[in-house]
Amino acid sequence: MAPKTADLAASASVLTPEEQELARKREEQAALEAELAERELRAADLRAALAAFERQYLHFVGLRYAELDELRAELAERTAHQRPGNERAEQAARDARVRASETKSAAGEQSPSAPRAFTATSEMKRLYRDVARRIHPDLTSDRTDRAKRQQLMAEANRAYECGDEAQLVKILTEYEHSPESVEGEGAGAELIRVIRRVSQARGRLAEIEAEMQGLLRSDLHQLKQRVDEAGQAGIDVLKQMAAKIDEQIAAAKERLQADAERGR
How far is residue 140's CA from residue 56's CA, in Å, rounded to a whole number? Predict the structure, then answer.
């Protein structure tokens, strides 16, 4: 007797244990990857905001500190020259020169214009989530694919900080059409890949949390918070700091000028 059509349909719709587990794991993977993309966005926002604040700090304050420390080093060296054999003066001059070199190195070069604060549009945030959800290197176990993803995520982070939406679109589009995006077939093999992706996503979530906690505890973030809170009250802390340093620079220049006139 031939099997009934309904029986054939029912048997065809029954999933194997591997397929059932794969379906559950895919749901778990999708949820984790959505959470991971959101966490990656938060971390990118925090990194970009701190980087922008650091550039502002260096522009308004750091370069002035570098100039002030250079003047102080010159003063200390002149004092040591005026007191030959005085070990304390010579050591003070050496210490002042080291500090001046370190400050100059940290401050970098003068920018012709004040750096902009970091802001991200809703579209930028959406694009970054899409990139992180699809391309993040911790979502693959293939070495070649992982290396490619690492490079692309680095490019995506730079594009996000610069507010370059077109570059984010380009990164995502190019990866979607690359050979690395092609998945294999077979429930058993795919289940293993999904299980590993779930594990990798959980590991990356833990890494992001640790990174963000470190950034939030950093001196730079603490200073940014103080500056932001003061800004809400209409107080520009960086400009106030710059003004005070300018006064110290002027005083140091006067001392150098006075010493030079006495030495004539």
Answer: 37
